[in-house]
């Protein structure tokens, strides 16, 4: 068909567009941003992690929210995962779509064919109308190694299926270890058994900092994610174990600076644009 044909260049014969694409492929042209990923691994602390993206401004847990964080040069983004009825990892904080979309229902009881058409932006106003709920693989494709991902898995799924799906998707990307799985003991136990090479962050017992560190050590985590109840003693213990220390959360610069002075390495924030000075941006 004529619509599938185009000139190879000015004055050249008409060829099928697919042949034109194939003939101009270059090795590694479509590789992820490997060099940028390595820079993230090596970047000094403190770092910022955009909680559900730049959720202070954009619809939370959506591609625009994550894209805004990447545009600011934020080191990490954080997202939440649930599994749909047909086994698709869905990016959403709540177990239902009610609060954040124009739909209703539990994610575990809905198929991707229904979820993909929900409007995840309309509740923030008409200017965000049409923003969709992403799948985890959509976020991986969009981020493409330009930021680490704090992957908060809410529940491991039947026989750990959700954790295993996430691990398989990460392995398929072949990126350096800039992404990590965060969750409670049930999630971390599946992760260490199925994919011990993928870093883990302990969210178990967040309201008991010392117990959280014990769980993190037992499950060979690389990070702990403290709540705002982080103590000097708990931070010292974490440093002794060479654990990276996340803070959930801070949205004000002076507040975040105080936690960094205590020993926090990575600050989760809904308002990354307000904390850029913390990381010298």
From TrEMBL:
PROSITE patterns: GP_PDE, PIPLC_X_DOMAIN. GO terms for biological process: lipid metabolic process. InterPro entries: GP_PDE_dom (IPR030395), PLC-like_Pdiesterase_TIM-brl (IPR017946). It holds the Pfam family GDPD. Residues 46-279 form the GP-PDE domain. This is GP-PDE domain-containing protein. It comes from marine metagenome. One of its GO terms (molecular function) is phosphoric diester hydrolase activity.
């Amino acid at each position: 068909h004529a619509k599938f044909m185009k000139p190879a260049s000015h004055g050249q014969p008409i060829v099928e567009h697919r042949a034109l694409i194939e003939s101009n492929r270059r090795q590694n042209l479509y590789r992820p941003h490997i060099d940028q990923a390595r820079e993230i691994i090596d970047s000094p602390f403190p770092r910022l992690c955009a909680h559900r993206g730049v959720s202070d401004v954009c619809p939370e847990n959506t591609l625009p929210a994550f894209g805004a964080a990447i545009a600011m040069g934020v080191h990490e983004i954080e997202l939440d995962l649930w599994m749909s009825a047909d086994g698709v990892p869905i990016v959403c904080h709540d177990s239902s779509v009610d609060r954040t979309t124009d739909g209703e229902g539990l994610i575990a009881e809905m198929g991707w064919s229904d979820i993909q058409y929900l409007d995840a932006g309309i509740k923030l106003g008409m200017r965000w109308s049409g923003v969709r709920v992403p799948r985890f693989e959509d976020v991986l494709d969009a981020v493409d190694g330009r930021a680490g991902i704090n992957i908060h898995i809410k529940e491991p799924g039947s026989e750990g299926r959700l954790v295993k799906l996430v691990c398989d998707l990460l392995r398929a990307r072949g990126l350096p270890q800039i992404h990590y799985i965060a969750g409670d003991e049930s999630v971390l136990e599946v992760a260490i058994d199925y994919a011990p090479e993928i870093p883990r962050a302990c969210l178990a017992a967040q309201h008991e900092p010392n117990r959280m560190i014990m769980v993190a050590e037992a499950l060979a985590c690389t990070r702990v994610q403290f709540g705002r109840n982080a103590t000097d003693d708990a931070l010292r213990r974490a440093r002794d174990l060479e654990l990276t220390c996340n803070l959930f959360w801070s949205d004000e610069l002076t507040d975040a600076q105080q936690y960094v002075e205590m020993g926090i390495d990575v600050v989760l924030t809904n308002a990354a644009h307000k904390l850029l000075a913390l990381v010298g941006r």
